[in-house]
Amino acid sequence: MTSIEILPLIALVAMFVIATFFPINIGILGFIGAFVVGAFLLGYDDKEILAEFPSSIVLTIIGVTYFFGMAKKNGTIDLLVNACIRGVRGRVTIVPWVFFFCASVLTALGTFSPAAVALISPAAMSFAARTRMSPLVMGIMTINGAHAGAFSPISVSGVLVRDIVESSGLTIAPWTLFFASYGINLLLSVLTVVGYAVLARVRNLEFSATGSSAGIDSDGGGSALSTPTAGPGGTPAGESSSGGGTQVLIRTPRTEVVTDHDVQPVTGVQKLTLVLIAAVLVLVLVLHMPISFVAIAAGAILAFTDLSKQSEAIAGISWSTVLLVAGMVTYISLMEEIGTIDHLAEMAITIGAPLLVAVVLCYVIGVTSAFASSTALLTAVIPLALPLLQTGALPVVGVVAALAISATVVDVSPFSTNGALVLANAQNIERPRFYRQLLLNAGIVVAIAPALCWLVLVAVPTLV
Description:
Residues 3-150 form the Dicarboxylate carrier MatC N-terminal domain. Keywords: Membrane, Transmembrane, Transmembrane helix. It holds the Pfam family MatC_N. It is a single chain. The chain has 20 helices and no strands. By secondary structure, the protein is an all-alpha fold. Helix 7 runs parallel beside helix 19.
């Protein structure tokens, strides 16, 4: 490799390091790098640099987060989650899987996994506290559920991965990618429950793997999304009602139970939102229309139900993700123009057998993703595998799915957004102790998950 090819690679590593230790969006660094590489190494003007701008992906992120952000604001998302929880009617061992399913549905519909975890984790961790279920197991299942649906044909991550692969002339079956992700995350959740159940029995742990029905109301409502109980004088529980001094917010361990008699009637706006969600699914999955324009149109229709909150709806768009993806994809595309990606791929191929190259890439993206952005890593690492896939030695969908899942499944780390959300919502357990549990579990996942993805999705299909 020449110095012209090496310098952008060093800059890419520096971007990840800077974004890991400083609160700077890596997309900003990507745009700066794209300008430096394009203008000074390739001699491009601004129009030629921006020709690599991923407009379709950006529009998808804007449309999906705009529409589903308003669905969250008007209570439709909470309505769906609570309906699923009430459906099990007191069967405690099923409720964790309901949370898994709810999180997977949210992400499959286009919600970002951190947003899905933010919606589900308060109810999930409250339920775990009331049933003496391990908060670690519940947190893992919530995060795994969010990851399970994260690569659906209409999700942002699914669209991103397919766009990267198809831009190289390869094809990938979107549903195969989705079911591969769902299957691996479901398997990891089963292994988590079984493993903790065995450990709890052997070591007589404080919490159980699936919880106990003691503490759940007899009508079977279970813990669900709700507002805090009002204290004396209408003050929310945990807040000081005094007029002066510093108010202290205390997280109370008890959360109100949503039961049949607590169910609020479905509003007209929520009914409209449900119809629009169904319409989006039909138009995208059946008629194959672009999710970006369809979601924006659905959001525009929903906007007329409350025009006074449009500034909040626009602010709810995941602009940080837009910036991250746009900057990184633009920079990686210019690295491909220089030839850096092709040379790295050729060097990876010289490691030896294609299967060995695949497992190395899975561990590289898995270990790095525990500390850095999974989305950014997908844009950087998947292109490295494309020349290998073009040889036909390995299954395209298997390798891509293994890399994508390895990048996201390690987000149980407390350093990630998802892990931090679970940690923040934990109840009836000391935070430092729970932090250490999440950290230990993340280490186990980093050690096992990439190998599992490689074995199930790459090695077995290749050798059989």
